[in-house]
Amino acid sequence: EGIHPSAEAMLEAAGCTVETERGALSEEALCARVKGVHLLGIRSKSRVTARVLEAATDLYALGCFCIGTNQVDLAVANARGVPVFNAPFSNTRSVAELMIAEVVMLARHLGDRVREMHTGQWKKLATGSVEVRGKTLGIVGYGHIGSQVGVLAESMGMRVIFYDVATRLPMGNNRPVDSLEALLAEADFVTLHVPETPQTRGMMGPDQINRMKNGAYLLNASRGTVVDIDALALALSEGRVGGAAIDVFPEEPEANGPGFVTKLQGQRNVILTPHIGGSTAEAQASIGREVATSLVKFLDYGATTGAVNFPNLELAPSPGTHRIVNVHRNVPGVLRDINRIVSDVGANIHAQVLGTDAHIGYLVMDLERDVSAHVRTAMSALATDIRTRCIY
Ligand code: NAI
């Protein structure tokens, strides 16, 4: 599905035979295509339904070379012992850079000046234009993106404050504040980097927008539901908010084309972009590398760190041992049965890690004697077994 070549190179270097398709396949075609496939890579347009997963009898793992995973039936993949990996943080830097550009654009009313010049209007103005140096940037949500924005903004000479529900280590001289209200009272620019949750839905509503400093600017490249667009449009038209940069919307079109409508169109000093915060060549290459790395680490070591539908665990390899990975139904007594199989053949368990969720247990086990083929066969025969693989 047009996955970046960086993924193919890594998978081939790890010994995989890689076959590619230019676009997404229909359910029918995908069902026929997945037979005999051990690792499947998709982007957002392929639908991996229960039917596809049932047809994929040899599938070890699934890589979504994108951010979202809602195109996959994650519960069925879990039940079939197939971990699903994605790349949620590959475009962090791309979003952070866009925010810095937009802070400067808002401070200089660049959106309006550019639009005027394209329609032949020469408007040389200094009114309302400011430098960003010495201004206060307030970051709401100081995770991967928020903290990067903080680092970059500080190097531009900005004062940086942030608010997060979790305790986060401040980067450089970035300073935490106790509440969203405290941040809004102090910030000249407010930038939102929170996830979409019930708590963040409408978190910048009429009251919060009113609490912003008079003429302050609002930036949102997180999720469209975080900002009340009606309240923002009103505050912009009344001049209470000095400008806004909005990359995400409560409702976004499925496909590119004309006809997009928002109340923010035509407003003074408003930069509107079509959810492109993370859309760069570097982010695509990085997504390719990140997901391919997860797939190879799962194939070679059974590591599931970052899997969205699976217990996350990783065990450092020990030289001279043999590794078995096992997915089983999460019912009492499975570990007892497995350990009995191992002790019956007189083998020592060098290391064993178990992670569980509501439905499955995932076990990685290193044995000191080469009895792994025998142990694997006996484990596969257990009634609770979903999948057992001897890695080395
Ligand atoms: P992250 O998970 O690393 O950071 C989110 C931070 O928000 C965490 O520190 C969390 O504790 C904090 N948080 C959660 N609820 C909060 C609340 N109610 N109040 C204050 N802080 C709260 O996420 P990351 O990678 O930094 O992404 C942030 C947002 O950016 C997400 O919504 C993501 O979907 C969006 N995004 C947008 C892109 C675009 O193209 N515009 C591209 C990539 C991500």
Task: Explain how this protein is built.
Helices cover 33% and strands 18% of the residues. The chain is α/β, with parallel strands linked by helices and 392 residues long. The strands form three sheets. A seven-stranded parallel sheet has the order 6-5-4-7-8-9-10, with helices on both faces. It has a four-stranded antiparallel sheet with strand order 12-13-11-14, with helices on one face. It has a three-stranded parallel sheet with strand order 1-2-3. Strand 1, helix 3 and strand 2 (61-64) form a beta-alpha-beta unit. The longest helix is centred in the C-terminal third of the chain and has 21 residues, at 281-301. The radius of gyration is 26 Å and the shape is elongated. The two termini are 31 Å apart. The model has no long low-confidence stretch (mean pLDDT 96). Bound molecules: 1,4-dihydronicotinamide adenine dinucleotide. Residues 89, 91-92, 95, 140-146, 163-166, 168, 193-197, 199-200, 221-223, 247-248, 275, 277-278 line the site of 1,4-dihydronicotinamide adenine dinucleotide.
Write the layout of secondary structure elements.
Elements: H1 5-13, H2 27-33, E1 39-42, H3 50-55, E2 61-64, H4 74-79, E3 84-85, H5 92-107, H6 110-118, E4 136-140, H7 144-155, E5 159-163, E6 175-176, H8 180-186, E7 189-192, H9 206-211, E8 216-220, H10 229-237, E9 241-246, E10 270-272, H11 281-301, E11 322-329, H12 334-344, E12 349-356, E13 360-367, H13 372-380, E14 385-390
Parallel strand pairs: 1-2, 2-3, 4-5, 4-7, 5-6, 7-8, 8-9, 9-10
Antiparallel strand pairs: 11-13, 11-14, 12-13
Helix pairs in contact: 1-11, 5-7
